[in-house]
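are you around this afternoon, could really use another pair of eyes. what follows is a protein written twice so to speak, once as letters and once as structure tokens for the fold. i want to understand how the tokens follow from the sequence so walk me through it. anything you notice is useful, everything is just below.
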Amino acid sequence: MAERAVFVQGEEAVTESKKPADSAVRPVLDPDAELSDATRRALLQALEDPRRYVGRPANPLWAAVPLLPRGGAGVAAAAVLWWWTDGLEIADSAADPSTLVGVLDQKLQKAVDLVHTLLALWPVAAGFVAVVCAGLVADRALYNRQLLRIASAQQHLVHPKDLTADAQELLTRAQRAMTAVLDSKVHREQWLDAQRNEAAFPRQEWAIAQDLRKYSRVARKDQRAPQETDNSTVAELLTSRRRVLATSLHGIERRVAALEAYASQVAEADARYAEVREIERLTAGSDELLDLLARTAADDLAVAEIDALTDEAAVVASTFTKALKSAKQAAAAALPLQSAA
């Protein structure tokens, strides 16, 4: 059963029957960043598994170093043994093969010859070691390229660790509101301007995340500054800096509140839309219901019953229309027109 997600706007709580929203803040990627598909894939993999790409690029040849001593030593030992067993005669040609000593000598000679034949494969083993080393080097080179791609994309990414706690909270609220709108029935069924939502939301999210990152950088520097001082000039400067930070954060919060107001109106429109669909379902069999009531009561009573259902459907439909209009007005406030490009 779907849980009810709660959206807080000021001191008001608006509930919407939706699948549970993820309370964790998500990294934000610049939607207009000119990144290759390979870079986007690498960045997505790094975000899904932060431990997948760690460290710095290193010389790919170092990837083969752990294998070379063991593999090289094994191949060298096999080559030396092959050379040593070449032409090695164990059995005495003058020994009588019918005796126990002669039989043992012959069997030992066959074993030595078999070992020599197997050791003749040492070039194949050397080639296998070389191929594995080449694979390790190529894999490390690919890993280096992925690290470089991810590093080059960092300027187009706002990560939660870049933000202070209050900035993370604001970004979470913005993301939750956008997710609520995109998950709503009125959005999915095109009652709202779905194309505008899908185009504007990523840019709104990126703009908010960028501003929150700038705020967080200054706020962290301010946190390292002395909180109290006897110097009146320094104290005045600190107070001024904190006032600017608070004003900046308040401005971002107003944009988030507009998104939450939009999500609230969409939730209201969704609720009214559900009522309209339910009444449509109940009144779909009006003719059958009319026939049934006509058989059990006077015609005027049956008509009155059906008229009541019809009037109720009209009222709910009107309410839905008003809610939908309010949602569109909230969208205009939350998503100011930007360049169509």
Notes: The two ends are 41 Å apart (CA to CA). The chain has a mean pLDDT of 75.
